[in-house]
Amino acid sequence: LALSDNSDDDGSSTPEGLHRRRSSTFVTYEIRPPSKTQSVPSNKNIHSKGNLSPKSQQSCPECQRRENVLHNEHERLLHVYNENRKLNEQLRLATLTNHQYQEENSKLKQHLTKMNTHLKEYQVNYDLLKDKLTLEKINQPKQNIPTDPIKRLRHELQIYNEVIAAKQQKEQEQIDYYSFQSWTPKK
């Protein structure tokens, strides 16, 4: 702590004289630059130096109390700073994880939409094939249906295999169409 004298004039009238001394109403503190090992400036760098008034010498216990309070606050702020840094890192990691989950969720929603579309098409095709098979059975003359149970089962199995083959061919055409759509560059 350095107190200046009451002189506002240093006796020079040159432009350099514009830098006058401060009056005794101002208090100047000398602050040393923090060392590289400290992350927050320490309050221990504020020392009483120079001419001390009798009043400041008498309040030495008060100064010590202030230094203790400043030291405790400094320690508390360091603790809060470290806690804040940890919480910020946790927030950053949680935000990144959340962003990844959102991207994966949107991809899954797109895939689900495609699968629902395919499922609806399969249901429509299945119903059409079922109706077609029913109509073929109704319209088929009774003479062509074998009376022997084994021949009749073979005939039904043959019709069933034909329906399955037609359905698989239709599905393969749709898969080829959609895979071509997904690999085609979008304009």
Automatic annotation (TrEMBL):
Bias (Acidic residues): 1-11
Compositionally biased spans, kind Polar residues: 35-59
Region (Disordered) residue spans: 1-59
UniProt protein name: Uncharacterized protein
Entry superkingdom: Eukaryota
